[in-house]
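for the recovery benchmark. tokens below, seq after
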């Protein structure tokens, strides 16, 4: 499946997205065309390199030597400006200049950091994404959001910088640890909840196939998620309106990550955030309780948490919402579902109601 994100008035800043088994092989030839003579600098998550670099060399990717290649151990813990400086200095030592381009090979943190590096290095150079985790393939590699964290919160320093190309090969998922598969499924469930009831029903009825990583099932959910996100990004690149729908589950989720010192993985936090937002919607009479039960059941199938850990007090989570980057002019924008496949945006919800919800989900 091939998608193309077209952004009005942005010329070449849209993204060409390929989703298929064999995208690894296609990447090299297509990249050479898109590069237009630029020199590529490959930045690999070192754990992915250990598993896939030899295979890439067999496919004659331009990585037959270490020239123009950087390996880095990406993680939420080092998703900081200091790491961007380290990577930029590595690029300088490798001979990068304004005529270069970056290629990110790894998961969501890799894509976020390399995309941000591309946005600021030499005041901006092109970049490409080759996502290797389910979370990155269904969500973070699409849409051009890049950034790093501050102690005060996630992704508070960043830029919108669309990748020229995104090559999504489901074969990468064959080596994905079960824990990482679980984290990616949180984003799949989120996408189905906010905009695609057909995708939701598919995930409900094919979760066993997905757990077995059957190629047809994987291709269906990846293409469904990417298609939905591409339409949202085309309509609202910089999150001034429609794109905020993608924050469902992330408002509380990011607060949970922060309070936990980022020990709670992103997908787990998003699952808890979705449960909080949906329970709030039910308490206001805006969402059917039976569908909340469906969400809870699906999360439980994927061993995603539906309750807050006892160590996370609701009060601390509410305090952490104060630094959320989703605030606009001091107001917190909160996405609530009204039915599976449809949401509404609520500005500054009553925190007393949210506190009650978090207390009901605690422990």
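predicted aa per position
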């Amino acid at each position: 499946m091939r998608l193309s994100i077209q952004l009005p008035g942005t010329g070449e800043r849209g993204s060409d997205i390929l989703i298929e088994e064999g995208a690894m092989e296609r990447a090299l030839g297509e990249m050479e065309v898109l590069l237009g003579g630029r020199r590529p600098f490959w930045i690999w998550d070192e754990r992915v390199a250990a598993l896939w670099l030899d295979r890439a060399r067999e496919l004659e990717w331009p990585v037959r030597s270490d020239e123009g290649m950087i390996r880095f151990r990406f993680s939420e813990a080092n998703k900081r400006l200091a790491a961007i400086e380290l990577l930029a200095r590595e690029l300088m030592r490798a001979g990068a200049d304004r005529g270069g381009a970056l290629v990110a090979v790894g998961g969501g943190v890799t894509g976020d950091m390399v995309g941000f590096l591309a946005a600021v290095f030499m005041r901006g150079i092109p970049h490409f994404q080759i996502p290797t985790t389910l979370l990155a393939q269904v969500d973070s590699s699409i849409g051009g959001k890049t950034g790093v964290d501050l102690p005060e919160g996630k992704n508070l320093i960043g830029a919108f910088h669309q990748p020229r190309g995104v090559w999504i090969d489901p074969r990468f998922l064959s080596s994905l640890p079960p824990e990482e598969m679980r984290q990616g499924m949180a984003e799949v469930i989120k996408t189905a909840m906010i905009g695609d009831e057909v995708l939701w029903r598919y995930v409900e009825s094919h979760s066993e196939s997905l757990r077995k990583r059957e190629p047809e099932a994987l291709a269906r959910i990846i293409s469904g998620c990417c298609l939905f996100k591409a339409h949202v990004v085309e309509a609202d690149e910089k999150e001034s309106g429609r794109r905020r729908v993608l924050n469902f589950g992330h408002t509380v989720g990011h607060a949970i990550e922060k309070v936990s010192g980022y020990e709670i993985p992103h997908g787990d936090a998003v699952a808890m955030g979705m449960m909080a937002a949906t329970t709030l919607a039910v308490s206001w009479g805006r969402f059917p309780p039976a569908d909340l039960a469906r969400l809870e059941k699906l999360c439980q199938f994927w061993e995603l948490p539906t309750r807050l850990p006892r160590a996370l007090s609701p009060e601390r989570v509410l305090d952490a919402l104060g630094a959320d980057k989703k605030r606009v002019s001091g107001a917190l924008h909160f996405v609530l579902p009204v039915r599976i496949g449809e949401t509404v945006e609520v500005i500054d919800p009553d925190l007393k109601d949210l506190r009650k919800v978090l207390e009901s989900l605690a422990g």
